[in-house]
Amino acid sequence: MSFAKFKCVFLTLVLLHAIGFASCNANGASGEQSESGDQTGSGSDADGGKQDGNPSNGKDGGVPAVWQNISSFDVCPEKEVTYLVYMAADNDLEPDAIKNLKSLQKVGSSSNANILVLLDRHSGYDAAEEDRKGADLYYITCNPGMMNDDIISEMGELNMADSVNLQCFLEFACAHYPAKHMILNIWSHGFGVHSDGLIPKSVIRDDNTNNSGASSMRIIDMAKAIRNFENRKGCHLDLMQFDCCDMQMIEVAFQLRDLADYVAAPLTEILANGSDYEAIAGYLKNGYSKEEFPGFLVESFYNRQKNNIINIVYSYVETSRFSEFTPVFDAFCESLIGFAKTDFTHLKRIRDSIVLLDDTIPEAVDLMCFANNMSGDIDIAALAASFSELVPAVKATDIDGNVFSGLGINFPCNAGQYGKYKAESGDFLDFYLETKWADFMREYMGNM
Length: 448
Description:
By secondary structure, this protein is an alpha/beta fold. Helices cover about 35% and strands about 20% of the residues.
């Protein structure tokens, strides 16, 4: 029986779960529960020490057992798009994760789209859908009787901050739910490239893996996991979505420039209810356009959050435009370096006058807000034109009347912030290594 014949029919779904059918046909194993092997690690290198990029748990050099257990699942027929949500909610966001997952279930997967969610929960926050602990893998259907009826594998306690699990999730989806297009959504707490996270330059907060304490995934490890997946499986992400605070930083988007064609994310803090997942599932069901979907995410996010009482800025980046933007940006940096040498006091005054995106993260500034403040001293016409191609769409709540461009940059206010930004050996993001912003930072901080 094909999935299309029984989607949205609750009684049939119950029967399929009872006899262990796969979500796509009658011969699969995806109705079975896997062994709940615990997986530990904190921001581990996704290469796992292996040159071929094979994910390793660091114990036996192989794929973690919990992922091996589901490697025999059936391969479903190819669809137009697979939408993946890496939902790291082993933290205080668990109630909102459940709401978002249930919003996806109002529409479910379809003949056009697969929707898979890897949800890691935290006990004690929400008992409405069982007070579960650990991770579960869901194939989202339309209106199941209970949220957990969509579970295709119980994964046990996973450290979602371990990039090995991200790579394994991507490889599993690519192998068993093939599609012409693939989208990855990282759902959790976000820390951008700031120094106030569990570790600088990181995303995700996992609070409870084998009582080892909270952990986060370094941006550099996240990118390695995606690169390993794409190299090994020959897949490529259309879009990288972040339903996390503070992630639309140029340093993050630049790191993903050849791994995803688009990056959609908030530049600011957001409320925990996040994106409009019912609208997203509906869009994917009714027809998917790679070129139009990023703009849809910006509009739908804004419409969901526009009545909130905090400033929220959301945008998307077209990563292929970095090849044109980078030399123009480097020329801007060279002008800044010259200005820092001749009139540092004036430059610092301009830096200090920038409207903050978040009072708790003073080093995070809107890139073009800073550039516009420099426009009386430096010609920014070429930069502005190139930027408009790099960031085609941005929406902001603007409750304070500010105008934001939608892409942030780390501009430390003092030597302490600068030291945290550059101190992590081996953790330099490509933007710091391959553009002249680092040269400007050295000149600027040298004058402090």
